[in-house]
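ok so i was messing around last nite and threw this chain in just to see what happens. nothing serious, just curious
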Amino acid sequence: MALLTFPLTLAQFYDLLPIGKAELDLPEALDLSQTTGGEVLTADLGSSLWAGRIDLAVMTHDEVSAIRPLINILRRAGSSFLVSDHTRPWPRLDPNGTILGAATPTILAVGGSMRELSLTGLPAAYPISRGDLMSFTYGSPSRYALHEAVGAAVANGAGQTGLIEVTPPIRPGAAAGAAVQLIWPRCKARLVPGENSTGVTSHTITSEAKLAWTQTLR
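result:
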């Protein structure tokens, strides 16, 4: 068997997890200060990165034995994996991605504000709704971008949308032509040191296994 390479794909790690509860969040990276006049000022401290926690369901000893080595290897420096949101695996108005089918959407254009993008390559009249996730890779070395639609759009007869506002802001390097994943959108992540456990064992089961992760752009 060949050595694992990073990031581990969804099929190699995330899809194997017996998820009991999960959290996907986009925490603020802000500095907040107050002037003597009572004005509250904010400033960005860095990139907005996705973060999350996963509580694994109760497992048999055999089940946990199949994933424990993967968790442990991901605790090492330089290791990473792809993660998705199991509650939003496809656009809201396209359950199972049936309407999208074999279409291969790409970025049509990135807005000058770096807060909007448009898509092409969609089926005619394909809907993008607020809350839909989308991901793509950009730059060299390749980086994974995960964005949430703030606005909504419907593709025209040519399969193109207007500009759609997304969050977090689009980073430099994203460009027209990049393939966009609307089915199981994902980002690259690392485990947060000191906040993971492969569980507590009893006579027949293992419980309380948990993971904490944060997005990484490298």
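not much to say yet. The longest strand covers residues 19-25.
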